Amino acid sequence: MGTSETLALAGGLGLSYVKDIVTLHKGSIELIEEVKQGTCFLIKLPLQWKA
User: Fold this and answer.
1) 50 lies in a domain?
2) pLDDT higher than threshold 80 for residue 4
3) Which pTM value belongs to this model?
4) What DSSP letter does each residue of the chain carry, written as one string?
5) How many alpha carbons fall within 13 Å on the CB side of residue 18?
6) How many domains does the chain have?
């Protein structure tokens, strides 16, 4: 397996774990793409305050 294939697999797997963790915490992930600017993932997690 070449370096680029390893990076592609590792990147995809990491995002899958992030999605699972965010979902477990009742959060959301938003994808923001801009041409020639790049891609940004916005992760939102709810705050829980203990009284």
Assistant:
1) no
2) no
3) 0.60
4) --HHHHHHHHHHHHHHHHHHHHHHTT-EEEEEEETTTEEEEEEE-------
5) 14
6) 1
Residue tagged 């793409």 (tokens): 33
Residue showing tokens 């203990």: 50
Tell me the sheet residues that pair with 11: none
Longest dimension (CA), the chain: 52
- Is 24 inside a domain boundary? yes
Give exposure, 12-51, as e/b (b: 16+ Cβ within 10 Å): eeeeeeeeeebeeeeeeeeeeeeeeeeeeeeeeeeeeeee
CA distance 4 to 1: 8
Q: Is residue 40 situated within a structural domain?
A: yes
